[in-house]
């Protein structure tokens, strides 16, 4: 069964992160530069929240807060759901579906070591299905000879 470790082995452990004292405007600019939909909010090496596009829309824009003077810590989602490198992809999919989230920070020994997204899970599942299809095709081809 595939685990988060398998996904991180392919995509790497880089995580776009921000401190809770940064302004929403600076965080949004960082998200645009990195072309990501979220930033993990950290204090030292600990995950304290997550700041997403949804947070910008619902907690800043919709209530007319000033993004230049509002800190990420005021509007981030906390506590945040996390997973571990040993967590199965199936478990992560379930958490994401039930909580209606698209990003899961990966924590090992209390340290942020990566992040997985719903897109990562979909890509992993497609690759696994493609492998099964190829195996079955080869099996049927050999059986028909």
Describe this structure in words.
The chain is of the alpha+beta class. It has a single domain, classed as Roll (CBS-domain), CATH 3.10.580.10. It has helices at 4-11, 24-34, 53-61, 72-75, 89-99, 118-143, and strands spanning 17-19, 38-43, 46-52, 103-108, 111-117. The chain has a 3-stranded mixed β-sheet. A two-stranded antiparallel ribbon has the order 4-5. The longest helix has 26 residues, at 118-143. The chain is elongated. The two termini are 32 Å apart.
Descriptors:
145 residues; alpha+beta; CBS-domain; 3-stranded mixed sheet; two-stranded antiparallel ribbon; 6 helices; 5 strands; elongated
- Helicity range: 40-55%
Spatial extent as radius of gyration: 19 Å
Count of domains: 1
Per DSSP E runs of 2 or more residues, the count of β-strands stands at: 5
Unreliable runs: none
Structural class: alpha+beta
> Main β-sheet, in a few words?
3 strands, mixed
CATH superfamily: CBS-domain
Strand order of the largest sheet: 1-2-3
CATH fold topology: CBS-domain
Distance between the termini: 32 Å
CATH class: Alpha Beta
Q: Please write the string of helix (H) and strand (E) elements.
A: HEHEEHHHEEH
Shape call: elongated
CATH architecture field: Roll
The average pLDDT is: 93
Estimate what percentage of residues fall within beta strands. 15-25%
How many helices does DSSP assign? 6
How do the helices and strands line up, and which of them pair or pack?
Elements: H1 4-11, E1 17-19, H2 24-34, E2 38-43, E3 46-52, H3 53-61, H4 72-75, H5 89-99, E4 103-108, E5 111-117, H6 118-143
